Amino acid sequence: MMEGVGLGANNMPFYKRPWFAVIALAAVTFLALVPFVGKAFHIDEPLFIWSAKHILESPLEPYGFPKNWIGISRPMWAINQNPPLAAYYIAAAAMLFGFGETALHICIILPAVAVITGTYTLARRFMQLPFEAALLSVSAPVFMASGAMAMSDMFMTAFWVWAVHFWLAGIEEDRPRSLVLSAVFISLSFLSKYFGLALIPLLASYTIYRKRAFGTWVLYLLIPILTILSYHCVTYAQYGTGLFSRTALNTARFKAGDILNPLQCMLGLSFTGGCLLSAMTPLIQTRKEILTGICAASAVTILFFVLMSKTGLYLPPGLTNIALFALFVFIALSILRYAVSEFIRTKEALSFLLMLWIAGTFVFVVFVNWTVSARTILPMLPAVSILIMQTAEGRLNAARRLAVIFAALALSLSIAAADASYANSAREAASRIKEKYASQHVWFDGHWGFQYYMEGYGFRAVDASSSAVINKGDLLIIPSFRTNPLLSAAALGTGTVSYIDNVSVQPLRWLSTVNMKYGANLHASLFGYLPFTFARVCPEEYKVYVVNTSFSLESATR
To answer: Strand 514-515 and strand 475-479: pairing?
Structure first.
């Protein structure tokens, strides 16, 4: 580990200089993500798009409108559990380029580039291979799947990694202006996503450990603290509740039972290892470490499937899923062990920082966030890449290191392609429904990207809080997979509706990131215990029913 490596390198050839590395990394990041800029809006992206559209009409009130997102109509401030900075960025981009998928996703690549160049800049303080550490981040499944999504996670991570860099520069080199910059980036990270708040205890703990005392540096942390208090006051004045405190209380109630739930921790290991698969920890371990890891991962895997069977939950069968789960757990346990052992070995402040960064993010993913998902693991990525490349630096030669990175990138591109294929299938289904049934009154049950495109065509989502009546002759669309389902043909009763059509769209055939049938959901562990899996993927189906007997939504969804 290289404490406080300087940035000057005047005697280096140009291809080894920092400015050249930054340009090269920016180009690599753009080229890796640009194939997916036409991807349909997906998961929670519509929340940010709708908020951005409202911002263009009412700039000072980003969440002041109602939306049906979970089956009932609620104010957007109660639905979108994130601060509005990303929505403001999207609104600004849309003013220039419009709300099309390609234009917005290209604009979102900018914070992704900031994450990678920030990882490189930060890694220069730790090691001799900062460029390879940054490349390792690009090649991670979590980065490729999140890199061009119009949501807040990449913004938060970009501000996070630069906040850490400037804080280290300020503390190690006694540069007050760097501490001010870091405090500003902490504030911006929080205003992108509430987890940015964790930078305050992280950087404070690092500094106390390094200096063994409090000092004037504490005053700089008052800037993000005042930002948080100001945000609370502003949102309380606007919406009658502080949005951050409201989110924290709701999350605490939702997650209260998970603290003692071993399944939740195992899900966290599965998603962490799968999303950070580029770490490839078995390649840099000794035989003893590998055998120990195999025993631990096998024990966790057996316990997980035994406990899952006792819950009565559906378990997709197959050795592939079991093997993937064990591999992902192995990688996650190795990452956590490396973080702890590196600190124990060196006792250095920088290794202490990496350990807290990785372990703290893992605790948040497992026990704080409402579900385990790829995007909640994203903030861990820069620290993991630095940690793993430190170890690989002494155990693998340059050719093998690059081979690992490019192999991981190939797999991550496949995962990103599968996720894009699934997202595009919802857009394609909505388009086919519009072509067939544009002249009829169509209702649908389903959310995420499917809702965004269906509403864009003028169709209506069913709403349990609505007194609206679905009339005889109306059409009802029910997808094979949907979040927060309200209606089903069986629940409506015999004769209420009749099946007339099935719109079927085939996503990528051999790799799935969203499918309960296969036990995978990259975006929410509530719907799967793996972030992705290999399988013979069936088409996504959207069944079309005609209504035979009028009924009210309010009575049908009780």
So the answer is: unpaired
Is residue 442 helix, strand or coil? strand
- Cα Rg, the chain, nearest whole Å: 24
At 392 the pLDDT is 82
Query: What helix, strand, coil percent values describe the chain, rounded to 5?
Result: 65, 10, 25
pLDDT, averaged per 10 consecutive residues of the chain (558 residues), comes to 47 69 95 95 94 94 89 88 94 94 94 96 89 94 91 95 96 93 97 95 96 90 96 91 83 62 89 89 78 93 88 73 94 94 92 96 87 91 93 81 89 95 95 92 90 93 79 90 72 77 93 88 88 92 90 68
- Alpha helices by DSSP H, listed for 139-242, are 141-146, 153-173, 176-192, 199-211, 217-220, 222-239
- The C-alpha atoms of residue 7 and residue 410 are separated, in whole angstroms, by 32
- 128 and 91 housed in the same domain: yes
Cβ(78)–Cβ(47) below 8 Å: no
- How far is CA 195 from each of CA 85, 200, 224, 278, 550, rounded to the nearest angstrom? 14, 10, 13, 24, 46
- What burial class does residue 487 get, using C-beta atoms within 10 Å of its C-beta: 0-12 exposed, 13-18 middle, 19+ buried? buried
CA distances from 484 to 68, 309, 454, 519 (A): 11, 24, 16, 18
Positive or negative, the CA dihedral 108, 114, 120, 126 is negative
Which residue range is the domain that position 541 belongs to? 419-556
Rounded-to-integer distance, Cα 419 and Cα 39, Å: 9
Q: pLDDT tens, 305-350?
A: 888 887 766 666 688 999 999 999 999 999 999 999 999 999 999 9
The answer as to whether 373 is a domain residue is yes
Count of alpha carbons within 13 angstroms of residue 171, beta-carbon side: 31
331 and 460 share one domain: no
Three-state SS for 143?
Answer: helix
Pair of tokens at residue 402: 């690059």
Residue 466, phi then psi, degrees to nearest 5: -95, 145
The residue from 418, 448, 463 where one domain ends is 418
Residues 214-265 have pLDDT tens digits of: 889 999 999 999 999 999 999 999 888 888 888 877 776 665 555 667 888 9
Query: Per the domain annotation, does 8 fall within a domain?
Result: no
Are 112 and 154 a contacting pair, CB within 8 Å? Answer: yes
Q: Number of structural domains, the chain?
A: 2
Q: Is 6 domain-assigned?
A: no
Kindly tell me the burial class for residue 189, based on how many C-beta atoms sit within 10 Å of its own C-beta (0-12, 13-18, 19 or more): buried
In a domain, 522, yes or no: yes
Query: Helix, strand, or coil here: 183?
Result: helix
In a shared domain, residues 423 and 412:
no
